[in-house]
Amino acid sequence: MKVTKDTPLGSSNREAEGSGVANISIAVSSVEIPDPSCSGPQGTEFITVFMQNHLPSYGGKDFRLFITGYTPGTFVTISVNKAGVRFNVRANLGETTWIQIPEFVELAGSNIFDQTVIVRADHEIAILALNYKTYTADTTVVYPVEKLGTEYYVVTPMGNRDGLNKQFAVVAWKDPTIVEVYIKGAVTFQGETYRAGTKLVIPLGAYQAVQLQSHDDLSGTRIVSQNPVAVYSGHVCVAKHTKCDYVSEQLLPVSVWGTSFIVPPLSFQPNFDLVYVAASQHTHIDYQSGRVRARRNLVAGQVVTFEIEISKPLYISASAGIQVAFFCTGGSKGKIVYDPFFLMIPDVSGYCQTYNIHGQDLFENYAVIVAKTAETADVTIDAEPLRITLWRPIPGTAYSWTTYNLGSGFSNHTIENPSSAFGVLSVGIKDKAGYGSTAIGGISSAAPTIQPPDLPSTSCSGPQGTEFITVFMQNHLPSYGNKDFKLFITGYIPRTFVTISVNKADFLATITANPEQTVSVMIPAFVELAGSNTFDHTVIIRADHEISILALNYKTYTADTTVVYPVEKLGTEYYVVTPLGKPDGLDKQFAVVAWKDPTIVEVYLKGAVTFQRKAYRAGTKLVIPLGAYQAVQLQSHGDLSSTRIVSQNPVAVYSGHVCVAKNTKCDYVSEQLLPVSGWGTTFIVPPLSFQPKFDLVYVAASQHTRIDYQSGRVRDTKDLVAGQVVTFEIKFPSPLYISASAGIQVVFFCTGGRKGKIVYDPFLLMIPDVSGYCPTYNIHGQDQYDNYAIITAKTSESGGITIDKEPLGNIAWRPIPGTGFSWAEYNLGKGFKRETMEHPSSPFGLLSIGIASKSGCLLCHKHMGSAVLRQINCRPEDFGHYISLVSTPPSHSGMLCLEQVDGVFHNLPVITANRQLQAFQHGTNILVQTDFGLIVSYDLVYQARVTVPQRYQGHMCGLCGNYNGRQDSKFLLPNGRTASDVAAFGSAWEVQVPGASCVDRCAGNSCPVCEERKKDVFKQRHYCGLLTAPDSPFTACHGTVSPSVYFNNCLYDLCLGNGDSQVLCQSIHSYMTACQEAKVTILPWRSTSFCRKYRDTDGAQVAKVRWVWEKRGEGDSIYGNKIPDFWDSS
């Protein structure tokens, strides 16, 4: 064997001891690792504390225990010592229950405390503790009392020098004890200061705790106790590469330390993390980092540090027991800038074959897995194989590692291998926070299976068609909020031509729908139905090939969507279901919409209605004549459920509530109903995993019907009569299965609730019959919402479902008792998006839902048509700041903007301390002005204007030219040559911006071309033709500013934007701005139905302010105290 002198890779001493030891590098060869013998953290009694997290008064405290049971009906008590607080819960096989712990248990400062948390159970359980405050959190496994010891060595992670405290806590069990602490850092305790090297002797009573804090590093501190104690170690808020975060872990006593450790890196860490190794006696360690192996000798109490990167997992073998801790130093993953966390690395000999792992709310959750390379294929999650995971070998061992994405939000998973032990770490990241701990191993939580009955075969009948008719029912009060009515139209045949019109109104929109694309069309606000009356303003959609439609009825904080069914699915008999909430005086409602033929509609009322100034009691039969494409809306304070509707000719029926409240604030809800002829007999209703209370399921019958139903493990039968509607409560984790002797209608009413910090309001949706399940679905995520797909599939086929041709990845499938189906909840993320979910051979059910909080705010980019300027960035060489403007629509009242200065986001206005930079929002524009005379104006959509002082003449370059007054030098490349075309010119001046990306859209013949038939439509006066019409509001400007360029741009953008009305309005607004800058007066051109006026948050029209220019010696400048607005003169 060749031996050479070398320096060990990425290691450094935490103390001076052992600094003279020689370091030896040896050739790489696989080493023997002892066979694992799992010893999980299960037990029947536990004691824990919640150490100080950041400052005691900081943030919203959220302290929790996650308790996993392994025996059915396990009885668990949770109490706080000397506080009179006690909780009782049941922990069942394979289930995890979380308990909120009172805020007052937090330890603060260096002192002795009584408020320890005691947990006892009559069968074995496992516990994970979460200590959370806003943007600062960590988790730790809580070990049972039989794993406590009498000797420990502290490890506290070191970060930036910020004055925040390292800390540890010692917790006594049932017996009083004397604790000796050999401190490695200065501590002030009970009014007296103790220097590093001092021995503290601290008496603790039964279930008492002591917390010690220091500005110094406390690593290497030795703790010796008469009786067993628990020890927790960490930092109140440690920062390294990012902002600070609370970190904490329960330590294991010296008596159970191991000798073989594998430390996998984090695959998303762009920098490096740290590994701490502590020894309790003279110990030599052999370690391998990547391909380099070395040896180091440690003395008692010494702690050494290793850097670890993605390409260099760390393997350590020791001559005696050591303690290994992993410190994630923080980093960035995409747009997530996550903060540090801390966790203990398990000894290889303690690996298990089964683990429970818990995903935390608001975090991206991951399992970092270490397994024998030959056995990696046998690792499963929730009894399903791991999908799309990259295993990387660990040099010098027979093991490999991988990072497995568990998704976002609360979740509980079982990861196991039937024959081979392996290791699992549980980590999570989100913006400004992170957590990490060892996964809980030891006992399988597999649940028993139930023999399912036979279910009907499926025969998909989707909502596709070529003609549709719909209405937008009253949403809250007619005058409330900013209306946003949209249709989302999906095509299936290339170049499907679609027209959208409003009956008896001057509104016509045309779009082209293509496969794999969804186009949104804004519907005028005047279409909203108001009160009980008949209406003409129905919305008619026609296409030359099949399409499908989703309708959105949105006002501020109150919205719902519904699938719009084609006219061939309309019928002549319906039963209404209107959800019941709190008695708040707001109306239940339904609407009946006639198709192309006049019809007589008979309505058998179940609630009192006032219609056309006449009151009708419940039980009355109304006979209402409707003309072609007419609608009637009926409203009532009473419940309208069971109201029967019979029509001569086919009609559409919509049912809901103007604003219903149950568990939270009220929300508009609406669904298009299916006629009795389209009802089914077999239904599965999955629960919402994030519903803390319960939701409601309404079941309606049109004749004498017997239903058999199963909720969780309970089965029962109920007999219904014609017109009867019964209600079931549904709560996670128990789904509802219903089988009926005749067709029934099943409606799900989400009653509102809380998910993390989101307080979401109610919504309503129709549950599809199992026989109508399809193998392919289009699903639409809505802007400003957390969007989810609730999937029901045959258990044996669930692994074959894909989203946009990719496997679903990690997703928790839960069996539906009494059936051969399972259900799962898939997080689609935030923001508007269209995705396709499908299975190659097996139909399945899918529900689309979204939740948002009233106080929520979503950051996004405004994207209209083909002209998109996502960000505008500035960094002159002689200027000390990097500026990035990002548009964000917090409401429908107008566009706001965040400015990123030197990587930090600010709300406008922004004025730097030295006044080098000033940024203001005014109207639809942002104005940035620097102390050297640069002025940048950006309208957040189309136009960016850059003005510089005259002294920069001849010294400029880039997209705006070189400011030398010569027309022949405007399209110069950075090398001084002339660009071959505009696309090449634009690409040449791209600047790399952190967190942003630019894509060359097209070049030459690859650019999209607008079809002539579309151009003919968009050239008309009520589209782009308004710009050039000889009698338009812009006529006076034609001689000063030619409209031809603006007209051609409008045609192109509107064509590629599929007729988006916002693109049209921005195109016209762009020409109007040029005219106003030329000091031409423009006549009013906006109206309530065409590019309606911008309004501020109070509803008052924004004041109009003109640009004022003054010629100065160095160039054009803006003067005056009033920041100018870019509003038009309408």
What does this structure look like?
This protein has 1130 residues and is mostly beta strands. Among the domains are: 884-989, no CATH class; 1012-1095, no CATH class. It contains four helices and 84 strands. A hairpin with a 5-residue loop joins strand 70 (814-815) and strand 71 (821-830). The N and C termini lie far apart (87 Å).
What is the topology?
Blueprint: E1 4-5, E2 11-13, E3 24-25, E4 43-48, E5 62-69, E6 74-80, E7 85-91, E8 96-101, E9 111-113, E10 117-133, E11 136-142, E12 149-153, E13 166-172, E14 177-182, E15 187-189, E16 192-194, E17 199-204, E18 209-214, E19 222-238, E20 245-250, E21 258-263, E22 273-279, E23 283-289, E24 292-298, E25 303-308, E26 314-328, E27 331-333, E28 336-338, E29 341-344, E30 354-359, E31 364-372, E32 380-381, E33 384-385, E34 392-393, E35 399-408, E36 411-416, E37 423-430, E38 433-438, E39 440-441, E40 465-470, E41 484-491, E42 496-502, E43 508-513, E44 518-523, E45 533-535, E46 539-555, E47 558-564, E48 571-575, E49 588-594, E50 599-604, E51 609-611, E52 614-616, E53 621-626, E54 631-636, E55 644-660, E56 667-672, E57 680-685, E58 695-701, E59 705-711, E60 714-720, E61 725-730, E62 736-750, E63 753-755, E64 758-760, E65 763-766, E66 776-781, E67 786-794, E68 802-803, E69 806-807, E70 814-815, E71 821-830, E72 833-838, E73 845-851, E74 871-874, E75 883-891, E76 894-901, E77 904-907, E78 910-911, E79 917-922, E80 925-930, ...
Antiparallel strand pairs: 1-3, 2-25, 4-10, 5-8, 5-10, 6-7, 6-10, 9-18, 10-11, 12-19, 13-18, 13-19, 14-17, 14-19, 15-16, 19-20, 21-26, 22-25, 22-26, 23-24, 23-26, 26-29, 27-28, 30-36, 30-39, 31-35, 31-37, 32-33, 32-36, 34-35, 37-38, 40-46, 41-44, 41-46, 42-43, 42-46, 45-54, 46-47, 48-55, 49-54, ...
Helix pairs in contact: 3-4
InterPro entries: IgGFc-bd_N (IPR035234), VWF/SSPO/ZAN-like_Cys-rich_dom (IPR014853), VWF_type-D (IPR001846)
Protein name: IgGFc-binding protein
Domain VWFD: 789-999
